[in-house]
């Protein structure tokens, strides 16, 4: 399998995890009982009523400690996940796991098949060329995706606030409470609008998780990045397959840090298709190797300019 196929496996697996977490009581908040459930257990501060009644220093210290351990510290750990991921792996999560990114890629693919471009609004120079065959099939797939995927997403995400069995019972009986209707419809509209109109602009400019990875990946000296082997630059056929493969509109041959790159590896697959498996010019690198490759590319550009 090529990198893109491996990436599809991780994307699908992560989407399944998102769907199953509330069903298996791995993580959800029960609005009816007002309880946070983690791995089947109710997550509470662990305080008894007696501690609230006792105004002594010992009781106050115990309450403060429990509040820090059970409320503040877990939240700090959650907030640190994406900066840490960005520092170590750049925007790898965006390209390999993010459910929204997966949805946007699907929308790109369907739009490309129907209109010959990834965007609804404009054709970009790096849009791949595609045949217009089986257009009716892709029209059907697009319409089904616009209905089925937002509804499934709405049901799955509402399950984090309302017990999933309650939601499915209401679907079977077709008798919905206001909370379930609001959750499913709200999430469905959000998914529909972002997948049709916004797409990767959300990844670049709005998504907090993406922005944290972007920032910490940019400043990190050890972050994972995609790089071009400048020592073999003469092997490039200028097919521009790497440019066309990039759905984030990065130009991989510039060989510099780009905040939009999600380390998807599409440029690696495209170059391998052109030059033969294992002979492509792109690869993953990190740390000192990244810095050396950037320096090599600067020298390569200087030599090229002098020779021209």
Distance between the termini: 40 Å
Which descriptor suits the 3D outline? flat
What ranges have pLDDT less than 50 throughout 5 or more consecutive residues?
A: 299-308
Structural class: mainly alpha
Task: State the domain count.
Answer: 2
The number of E-state strands comes to 5
Roughly how many Å is the radius of gyration? 24 Å
Secondary-structure element pattern, one letter each:
HEEEHHHHHHHHHEHHEH
Summed up, the helix count is 13
**Order of strands across the biggest sheet?**
1-2-3
Helix content: 55-70%
Percent strand: 5-15%
Largest sheet: 3 strands, antiparallel
Question: Which whole number gives the mean pLDDT?
Answer: 88
Q: Can you give me a brief rundown of this structure?
A:
By secondary structure, the chain is mostly helical. It contains 13 helices and 5 strands.
List the helices and strands and how they pair.
Layout: H1 3-23, E1 27-30, E2 35-38, E3 41-43, H2 49-53, H3 57-89, H4 92-96, H5 99-115, H6 135-158, H7 164-173, H8 178-198, H9 200-205, H10 208-219, E4 225-228, H11 241-245, H12 266-275, E5 282-285, H13 288-307
Antiparallel strand pairs: 1-2, 2-3, 4-5
List keywords for this structure.
disordered C terminus, two-stranded antiparallel sheet, mainly alpha, flat, three-stranded antiparallel beta sheet, 6% strand, 308 residues
